[in-house]
Fold each of these.
Amino acid sequence: MFFFLISCFSFSFILVSKSLSLRPYPHPPMKSEWILLSPWLWKGLSSFLVSWFSKGGLAVRLPIVLPLKKMSLSLGSKLAKVEEEKISLSLLDLPDLTLECILERLSPAGLCNMAGVCTSFRDRCTSDHLWEKHMKRKWGRLIGVAAYREWQLHLASKKRATLLNQSKQKGFFSSLYSFWPFSLIRPKLENDTEPTSSLPVDSIMAWYVSLESGKFWFPAQVYNRENGHVGFMLSCYDAQLSYDSQTDTFRARYSPHGRRTIEENISWDRLRAPPVDTPSHVLHFSDCLQDLKPGDHIEIQWRRNKEFPYGWWYGIVGHLESCDRNENNCLCNYSDTVILEFNQYPTGSRWRQTMINRKDHREVGNQADGFYGGIRKLYKEDEISMWKSLWPTQAME
């Protein structure tokens, strides 16, 4: 079937070449000529090969035999003769642009299949520019500044260990084999007689594999921790996350303080990258206080006591008690006192409302009501929509 399709590509090219010829060829078209005269052929060929490899075809190590039609053409005359000639062509003999087009369309699993073919494909298929798009597509929403910094620390630690023991250089690539589909590389590599180099630990592919395998724990934030426990509704807490590829969910490790320290089966829609680079035990610097006005959506740090980490809680800016809530008469944005409302709690609840000082805001609170910290104003509609989608279906006590 494979050779039949390739032959069809070649025959179609011959018919097009005939219709475009203005003078007879003194000799049969050379290999370089039919490559240049038929860019559409490579586009079709690349699409076919991508489909072939995605189905697990690993026969790329065998030479591809392309039967080509050699023709003698003359103006105003019909096709005189067609002579078939077999030209042995390896996949590595394809033009660089065509080969890159094929590799760019492969999935992560497909790239790993190709990387197991030979050293040349291994070098190509582990290059950063091929893996960058896969990284952004799947992990871009969760990987923030904190996660990148954690990865760099992980690399530094791994490099120090490598310097102490050179035999550990194979450690990362060996661990890659235990995770499907990267384990598909192993049979090819083990049968190679030539020595091979390990996967660079600082490559984007290495980072992608570490995330997919769940062996790299990275910092992110979890909405409504503990599966929406009433005590954490409309909040977002820092956690260390590990991915479970079998269930397409995450495990979370929270700070040792609190009700629980581990949560499992967390879906993607309950996660986000930290919007600000502020550690969970540090008071966030509030640079939006002068802009706050009634109706603004905000997140504010809150913690039960000073030993606990902060979580980010959703609220809105309310009106002062003296305000009649008429937009034309409202002067709340000129007052030093700012009212923050948490309408997920019923009227009369001690969690329903709090006040801060616009000009001299610091951590405020007590052991009974907890402590309120820094504030960030929400400007993006997608952030506001996310919080609204998490709104509890019933009144909270």
Amino acid sequence: MPSVADLITRKAAQEATCDTELPAEPWQTAQNASYGPGASRGDTFAPLPTPQSPLPARYTQASPEELDAMITAAKDKLGDRVKILGHFYQRDEIVKFADFIGDSFNLAQQAKAHPEAEAFVFCGVHFMAETADILSGADQAVVLPNLNAGCSMADMANLAQVEACFDQLHEALPGEAIVPVTYMNSAADIKAFCGRNDGVVCTSSNAATVLKEAFERAERVVFLPDQHLGRNTARAMGITDKQMCMWNPNEPLGGNTAQQLAQAKVILWNGFCSVHRRFTVEQIEKARAEYPGVHVVVHPECPAPVVDAADSSGSTEVIRRVVENSAPGDVIAIGTEINMVNRLAQQYPDRTIFCLDPVVCPCSTMYRIHPAYLAWTLESLLEGRVENQIVVPEDTAADARVALERMLAAKPC
């Protein structure tokens, strides 16, 4: 099976929609004004406040085999003192070393469930490491191997914009209770805002439970930053498109009239995932034409028409279970990040499993976690140095913890 790098180089070059520098090592492209190799060229780049420092040559000049040996040796010596958390979207070269693999909900639970660990090495992106720091103990360190591993969706909403949104909403809708619900893909200070304002964090696993409970406390919800997860979840609950409106943070009243806001049960932030936005109904129709009987499963970050056209939708954990519960000979077309799809295809060679998107833009910031960074991080811990520690200020963490605990209590449907 072709590697993800091979797929990007071949397919992206044909359609000119993805950055074809994916095969380059992350440290060679770290200064580029984009989200990195393989990213959608349509993303607006928001630089991280603390850029990654250069890696020593020992790591950048090492072969893949040498890096594997470094990681294995350091991991063996560290033992249970350090837990490696790996998101489903990580490259295979990283996932094979993870102690726990899962979606953001699973990994948040693991960060809370292991008080015996001295440190967590989070192979994911920045907002995930922040969440692990908030939920883990005060004496536990959380490390992000590459500080440049951000998230374009999380960058589509900042605290000032969210505070301005609620100021305008309270002025337009005086006296009305409005609950903020933020997707896990958001910064710690936005999670803290939710904690202070009777709000909650959700994941794609439990968004339906969270939204249902939010409506028990208020008649109106602001869902951020992913419009598609919010819309798909609300529609599945019977909320119509006419009962939803979009909030553009760059427009007065989010680009709405006061009447539109008054009619809305769900106010959707104008954010999205560049990977999942690429999936289309036409791709599903093509899959059905080529493979009659194919089962199409997509992530709920996809646009609503794509979710409607699919046979099922759900979080990365749901997608994994769909494949796990399938039978030999089944054909499954998947609308989510290519690293996960390729891994599932390798794990189940007796099934035909493929990605709906022929261009295959990966989650480019996830891809910035390279074995060289993991080797450097683990060897530093072995030497008593904590590099790239993610620390959320306690005043922010305390409020964010409230919203996150509500998330953990909201079990997926």
Amino acid sequence: MATATTTPGPLETLSFDGNASGPYVFTLVAQNVMCAYPISDIYAPASRYLFYALVALTFATLRIKWLSHVFLGAVVTYAACAAINAFIIIARPSTLQTPQDVSIPFIPTGINWTTGINPVKAVVTNTTTVTIQPDAVELDIDPITAIVVTSCLVGLPLQIWSRTMRGSLIIRYMLLVWNMIMLAASISSLIAWPTASLAAPQYRFCYAGAMDPDSQANDGWDPKYWKGSWNASIYNIFGYSAAEVVDGSGVDEGDEVCEVASAGEE
């Protein structure tokens, strides 16, 4: 499940003096958003802080062999989970779809509901098309990289300089295998990071004046909306009149509002 985040504010007013014939309202707007898979619970701040505390306790209790081994076992287990995740991410990179253009109303910069006291933020202006290339950011890659790189840097000193850890043949071989896995995971996460943490620009399409909350989550794009192209799909959802400049009566505050075109998942 992925989330889409933007920073829209309430409309000060939908009207602006478009020309001499009077006020106009845009019933369809495009907003810049970030579509991302949220950080997994296992990499939540509390879990990571506990991991770093266990790393420190492993060094602090080296003179108490059994206690240091307990802390090291917890560190190894957590880091191994992150390493497996890193291998999965690099083994199954996301596939980018072919970019397609979607037609949107031309909204000039500086109209009163984008520059007022409570403006609608992140609205796409000064263009009649946006290029859709469904993609999503994998937010797990940041904590995974931090965990496996830290583990790699911690394991080497323990293997080389710690007499406590070198006193047991089993522990020595376990540290050797662990360091090799952490090194491979570090390389994998660093290779995967540029593609997993960066995504093509994403957009959501809303009825102006009735936009969804800043952050949303769903289980995927409903294929019944797909009409062969993103442009046709957006027009099918909002209707042809929704993508045109109409008078103030064209906005229904009760309408269902936003759709995000992002790899089938928002």
